[in-house]
Amino acid sequence: MSELVTGDAVVLGLRPARLPSRALASAIDLAVLFAAFLVVSVALGIASRSLDEAAVAAIGVASFLLVLVGGPVAVETLSHGRSLGKLACGLRVVRDDGGPIRFRHALVRGAMGVVEILTTFGVLACIASLVSARGRRLGDVFAGTLVVRERVVTGQSVAVPPPPPWLVGAFAHLDLSAVPDGLWLSVRQYLTRMHQLDPGVGRAISERLAGDLVARTGTTAPQGVTAAAFLAAVVHERQARDAQRVFSVRALPAAPRPVAPVSGAAGGVGPQEALGADGAHGALGSPGTSKVAAAAPGEVPKRAPGSGRSSDSVGPDGGAGRAPSGFAPPA
């Protein structure tokens, strides 16, 4: 990884291309150039059979400069540093500051390429690339350019750790509209890598991010809750809202179910019995019907015995039916 600093004091992490990949890309480009030069030379030779030897020699020199020198310059200028060989190998020519190259950069590279690639069969270019710390040949040094790798193998993405069970739903009232996307990205990157950081450094980063989040939302973390747990709970709240918004848009209204007619003495079910007070079919108070007892405001509704494990049941690890979150409970 090569760290380049731009004029705006932005550090760019670029991966310079090494000699094997650059040699393969150059071999592909040279094969295409020599094939084009051969075709052009044959066509010009047939067209200039009636000319004298001096004119034929001038046409040969012009075709050499046009194809073997002007061709790479034109291709790198128009493609912003991607020739056919570099495109096949996932490489690209950029400036020292990471920006796209221009005509003058491609011209210097092409002119120096005649000396260090064509005349010395690539020996000079290989020596310069091996000596350079970033694998640059003489054309790159004089032009102020760098060949970098565009296709980089990325690692497997890491999921954000779940929040502590006692903080799930605690920030349902929080207004998250003022939090920018850049802050969300920073919080997510910290949560996925917090176990790889030094404890002191990780604590400082979490407190700084929590302070930025508090400044945007206007709500502080509960007493005794660490900054990392606060960040995880807020991110979980945002993910829950996004999922609810997506599924509510995709959900379709359910079709009304028909009500059984009254059969009177035949023992049929009446309308008031077919549709319960909670919208579920079945007689009110009949056996097997799950009922939720009324709860006071702020209390969790209690389920009847045998109605199944609720979403707020506590598992053997202390988490509400979920995997351990890795956050310690508040003191």
Describe the structure in your own words.
By secondary structure, the chain is mostly helical. Helix content is 46%, strand content 5%. The chain has helices spanning 19-47, 53-78, 84-89, 103-119, 123-131, 138-143, 181-193, 199-217, 227-250, 271-274, and strands spanning 2-5, 11-14, 91-95, 145-149. The strands form 2 sheets. It has a two-stranded antiparallel sheet. A two-stranded antiparallel ribbon has the order 3-4. Helix 7 packs antiparallel against helix 8. The chain is elongated, with a radius of gyration of 35 Å. The chain starts with a strand and ends in a 57-residue tail after the last helix. The model is unreliable at 1-12 and 262-323 (pLDDT under 50).
Fill in the keyword field for this structure.
46% helix, 331 residues, two-stranded antiparallel ribbon, 10 helices, mainly alpha
